[in-house]
Amino acid sequence: MRVACFFFPHFAVQVEVRDNDSLTGRPIIIGGLPYERKAVYDASREASACGVRLGISLREAYILCPQGVFLPLDEEKYANIFTTVLTLLATQSPVVEVGTPDFAFIDLSYECPGHITELQFVEGVRQTIEKRLQLHACVSVAPNKFVARAASQVARPGKIIAITEKGVKDFLTDLPVCLLPASSRILERLELLGIYRIGQLASLSLAAVSLEFGNEGKRLWELSNGIDESRLIPWSQVPMLKEQIYFEPGAENINQVLAAGDELLTRLSQQLKERWQCCLRLTISMHFSNDHIAQRVFHFKEATSSRETMLRHLKQYLDSARFTVPLSEMRLTLTDFCPESGRQATISSGFSDQPLKYRERLASAISWLRQKYGKGIVSRVLAKPSSALPEDSFSFTEFDL
Amino acid sequence: MSKLFREAIRLEVEESAQHKPLTFLYKGRREKAKEILKRWRVDQGWWKRSVEREYFQVKTASGTVCELYRNLLTGVWYLQRVYD
Question: How large is the ipTM?
Answer without folding.
Answer: 0.71
